[in-house]
Structure formats: C-alpha cells, structure tokens
C-alpha cells in the first residue's frame, strides 16, 4: 500500500485509490501462506536474475505492452505526475552517492538483542539488493553496490535495546500516538536542502528512510519515507529468502504502484500485485528499471560511460526499440555481505545552507520521450513532534504560480541536473534556490 501521509514531511501528494483492499489487509496475503518460503541464500538462487548489463529501453517483447500501460497509469494518476515527488528512493541514492541511511522504529515492547539488530540489518540489506540487482550495470546506473546503513533505532525505552548501542543513534521521542519516532532534525524528508545542522550527529547521521516494525501488524505500508511491516512477521521470516510483504513495500519506496483496481495486460503474478508472488519477477524488475530509465534522463543521473540512447518514440517511453545495445556481457550480480558492519567513526557535521544560484551553464536542446512535469516542493519548518500515523489523505502542495515562457514562477523548478531543460531564471522578486544538485526552485 502506497501511503503518502506523515511521517513524510516534504513530498509531492500522491493519488490514493479508494478501494476495498490494501496492503494492510491480512486477507490480501493469505493465498501465499501455504507456499513454502525458501531459505536458500540469495547468491545461490539462480532464477530471476537480469541476464545482461544493458543500455536503453529494450524490455522483453511479451512485457512491452503491460509496461507501457503501467507507465501511462503513473503519468495519469500520480498527483503531480511521476516527477511530483522529489524524494523517491532514487533521489536518495543519488544524493548520497550510492548509499541509504535507515532508522528503525521499534514499535514494540519486546526487547531486541545486539545480535538480533545485526541480523535485522543484514536481512534488510539482502532484501533491498533483490531490487537493486535490476539496475546494477543497467543504462548508466553509476553504482555497482548500494550500501544500506542502519544509523539509528527509535524505541519507547532504552532498556529494550540489549547489548551495546555505541554504533547507533538511539531515539526515545514519541509521536502524537505514543509511537517511537526518529529525530525530525535528522530526516531527509524534512531537509531536502541537505541542512542537517539540527541533527545531533550531523549529516552522516541523517536517515533517508525508516523501517517501521510494528507489533501485531498483518500487512504493510510503503512510500518514499520507507516501509512498515509487522514485527512478528519480519522476525519470523528473517531467514527466508524472500520477505515478500517487505519487498512489495520497498517497491513503493522507489515509485512502483499497487494493482488493486486494475491489472496490466498479460501479467497475473508479480510482487507488486499484492498476494500473487513471493519474489520479485521479471515484470517487477522491468517496472523498476523503467523508473531509473526515465528519472535518470530527466535528472541527468546516468553515467556517461555506460548510458546510451534508447531510440524510444516521443509518444511512449516504453516502446520496444531495435537499436538498444548491450554495454557489457555477463551477469549483473551484486556483492553480498556476509555480515552487516556499522561504522563507528564519527565525522564532524557540516552545516549546509541554501545556495542562491546566479548562473548556470548552457545546455543543449533536447526533446525528451515524454513531457516532464516539474515537481513542486513546499518549504516546511520542521517541528519537534509530528503525527506519523498512516492516513489515507495524500499530502497536498500549493499550486505553483507560473512565470512567463523564459522564467519560472514561484515554487517552479529553475535548474538541477545536466538534462534539465526548463527555465533557469525566476520571475522578478524571486530567487533560484538550490535544494540539492538535482533540484533548484524559485522562492
């Protein structure tokens, strides 16, 4: 279930389908309970791997039509379009140069040992790698391994954390519903300007997502803020090869949708169709690739040494192409961690400030395969406490005030990324503010 309410503080609103079922309903997952969860190691599982490192958009012919349907559905139903949220997992990976920092919200009165915390971190990393393997070596993705770092734990009482906690930040703040929460000052969602001066440990101790393990939860939630699944479910399946509800929610973190109200042509079993698959399928993997393919073009993320032209048509980004080339033959296999190690080296925090952009290098005109919808982000002053209970109402941002053809109006984008093709000057009285290297906004 994609959930766009708090605790995500700064994000584009997201269209939530009003359907009877959701990821939270236990009945959605019941059909999979009778299936055996394999406990083979990830590296021993030969099936369901991307076969070649590739360039461009060239999905298998039998998946081309449903992939096109899915992307068109994103564009037409996501509030603000696919670019309406500037804090998808993709933005986080690129801003952190191939890393993700995670804070665990332990929504339980059960104790957790140091060994269990290490195991949770290792398992969580292994599950995430099942998604990332689809973009390692694909179309200019610049990293061969995305590092997953558990940097903090939020608990109702420090006595629940047995053993040494010297390698993690411990939070005991509670939200309005009495649920342990990680510090707002360290949240990327609250600080898209990268100013972590309010985070006690500095920028290195910020977190991009939270893993919320909730006592008694039968289903799950997921969005760019992270994932929420049941504590008992996670711990019971901690040695399973695929923790399928978590994998589903991780897909939401990177933009993939639910399929409760429709199903693409010709595909019936895949992880994002809740309750229909235990593992990430080829269709899931290509949906994941599609997000990278499109956002990397829009934001100029792809590595020039690997990226190439796809030759896709202007009407659809998912048309099968004949001129896509293979950059490197071989299996795209991520490096596996035998154990999870948290660095205990502290780095002094650097206080970042908003940078006013006064000039920008000229860009070469280019016609994208689809018309990008430039994101709108609402500046918000973080508060000391906020309600992080899942809600059905999406967060809404104010409408942008447009400028003329040569300038961007209030809240509109005015730069960011080598492939950005919009205006680079703001209307009179506004400044072009650099939130990060990929997104500048008129304020």
UniProtKB/TrEMBL annotation:
One of its GO terms (biological process) is carbohydrate metabolic process. Residues 1-20 form the signal peptide. Residues 406-443 form the CBM1 domain. It comes from the Eukaryota. This is CBM1 domain-containing protein. One of its GO terms (molecular function) is cellulose binding. GO terms for cellular component: extracellular region. It comes from Neonectria ditissima. InterPro entries: CBD, CBD_sf. The keyword Signal applies. SMART domains: fCBD. The keyword Signal applies. Keywords: Signal.
